[in-house]
Design goal:
The chain is an alpha/beta fold. Helix content is 38%, strand content 17%. The mean pLDDT is 96.
Length: 215
């Protein structure tokens, strides 16, 4: 579902800082070689992720859903010196393209790729995260939220992608798929959580931005 016209979308990108040549190459290769390329963060959202990372200057970042590594590169742009990104994905087939571009970006030593089920991996990550980006299977968004919340300091930021789910969040409950119901449940959970301040931004497929204000 397109929320704005293609002309306006083009205008927005023309008035947003350009993606680097490396990111452009990764963007293109993903579209040429990988299934469901729309899963890539892409130019606009990538610049949004970079902007948040620059503002926060996080020591540690957790990303749930690596895909081809584009968003991790964007997030790394604001990483504090000596900082680390832990990123989790279940699809090891994309590892060659991920590592190729991370090496080109010069971040291979500051990003740790964890392959497997995030529900199993996250509890084993023994560190605090200043910034978390959730962009994986929608059915587990609420579970991921619960797992990462306890690992974040007050003031930490969570970003969750696809929270408008192509507009399907407005469907009648009996028309919703399980993925849509999970997104709606997650959005409701966040909205009712007094421990956070949140803004749902209509960026691409919807980006929920949360700031932890209490434990």
């Amino acid at each position: 579902m397109d929320f704005i016209s293609s002309d306006l979308a083009s205008y927005i990108e023309q008035h947003t800082s350009k993606e680097s040549e490396l990111l452009h190459q990764l963007n293109r290769e993903t579209h040429l070689k990988v299934l469901i390329p729309r899963m890539l963060s892409g130019h606009l959202q990538g610049r949004v992720l970079s902007m948040f990372s620059h503002m926060i200057k996080p020591k540690n970042i957790l990303e749930i859903g690596t895909y081809t590594g584009y968003s991790a590169i964007c997030l790394s742009e604001g990483l504090a010196v000596g900082g680390v990104i832990d990123t989790v994905d279940i699809n090891e087939e994309l590892t060659p393209i991920i590592t190729k571009y991370w090496e080109k970006a010069g971040i291979i030593d500051s990003v740790q790729l964890h392959l497997g089920n995030a529900l199993d991996i996250i509890p084993r990550l023994n560190k605090a995260y200043d910034l978390v980006f959730i962009d994986a299977d929608k059915e587990n968004y609420s579970a991921y939220y619960d797992l990462v919340f306890k690992k974040m300091p007050v003031g930490g930021i969570i970003l969750a992608d696809n929270v408008l789910w192509s507009g399907n969040v407005l469907q009648e409950p009996n028309e919703m798929t399980e993925s849509t119901k999970a997104i709606v449940d997650f959005n409701t959970k966040v909205q009712n959580d007094s421990r956070v301040e949140n803004v749902l931004m209509p960026i691409r497929d919807g980006l929920m931005v949360l700031r932890k204000i209490s434990d």
